[in-house]
Structure formats: structure tokens, C-alpha cells
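Example record

One chain of 161 residues, shown exactly as stored in the release files.
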Amino acid sequence: MDTYALATSLAVDYPVLNIFWTMLELFLWILWFFLLFKIITDIFRSHDIGGWGKAGWLVLVIFLPLIGILVYLIARGQGMGKRDLEQAQQADAALRAYIREAAATPTATPARTPAATPAAGAAGGGGGRGHVEDLARLADLRDRGAISDEEYQRAKEKLLM
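Predicted C-alpha cells for this chain:
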């Protein structure tokens, strides 16, 4: 049998609607696995149920997967969203604290600008070289997107006061 006849017979045996149906089944299978891992993660992350409760939910989700996932989403879906939100807020707060800590540490080799020289700082009557370097560091953080414009303005006002 030549390749054209083989390709034609395969195309006839598997019509386009079956391709769409297979794609839908594959999508639903991937969605089910995503929900399964998300729910198992949520079961272990949850602090409001004890060990036996976690074991019970885990057995239900693994041995009766369709019913277990649906029951878990109905019974604990709202709390699942709240736990996700709390975790995202904690991660955001940790990132912001790290950025502030990194911005507060002095750099190893400060950039030399004409305004940053001791003579220019003394001639300008400003607060000295430290404020200029701090402003330059803040501007760099803002330009890199590490801090927002509002945070930049607040920090700039604190430095200039």
C-alpha cells in the first residue's frame, strides 16, 4: 500500500470531529490533573484541619477522584481561594522586604557624578554626598522596576527632609 492510500484511509477513519473530541478529552484530562495537584497541595497547606481530616480528604480525592475533587471544591473552594490569596500576599511582602533590605545596603563601588563629589556637595550646601548617592540608588531602583513611583516619591521626600 502506498503512502497516499495510507494517509487517505487514516483521514477517512478519523474525521475532524473526532480530532476535536480527542483534543477536548486531552484538555479535560490535563485540567483534572491540575485540579488534583492543586487540591492535594491545598490539603497539606490548610491549617484548619487536622491530620485525620487531611488523610480523609486525600483518600477521597485519590480513590474517588471525580467525586472527591467536586466535593472538595464545593466544601472548601472558598477557603482555598483565601489561602491562595494569603500566600500571594506573604510572598509579595517578603519580596518587598527583600527589595528594601537590598536597597538599604551600600554598594561596593559608588558611582561618581559631579554632584556626588565632596566639593560639589559642600558648595551646594546640601546634606552631603550620602543623600546624593541615596537619591541615585532610589532612581536606579525605580528605573529597574524594583520600587513603584509612589514608593520612590515617599523615600525621596524622607531623604530631602
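Notes: The CA atoms of residues 91 and 154 lie 23 Å apart.
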